[in-house]
Write a structure and sequence with these properties.
Blueprint (H helix, E strand, L loop, with lengths): L2 H16 L3 H17 L1 H12 L3 H24 L19
Length: 97
């Protein structure tokens, strides 16, 4: 599979994924983090060959990435990023509720 094909498939999946319920999106991010952690040894060997970076550096990068994915999942479930507010009418407001 070439990178253009992967990018095209990702673009096609973006809108349907964004339209899923927040808990489903969060679960998907945690699943990706779990898969990343499970494949880290294999990924690190490949990344060392391709980048010349050291194992400790790449181990830190994998750990950082999987932690960020889990953090993003928590943020999605929390919903604070939506900045939703309910502004009730104030009958005492000078120009009316």
């Amino acid at each position: 599979m070439d990178i253009e094909h992967v990018a095209k498939r990702a673009a096609q999946a973006a809108r349907p994924f964004a339209d899923t319920e927040p808990r489903a999106r969060a679960a998907a991010l945690v699943a990706v983090a779990d898969a990343l952690d499970a494949a880290s040894d294999e990924l690190i060997v490949i990344a060392m060959q391709e980048t010349g970076l050291t194992r400790p550096r790449l181990e830190g990068e994998v750990r950082r990435t999987s932690n960020q994915l889990r953090l993003f999942a928590e943020v999605i479930i929390d919903g604070a990023y939506l900045d939703a507010r309910i502004d009730e009418a104030d009958p005492g407001y000078v120009i009316g509720p």
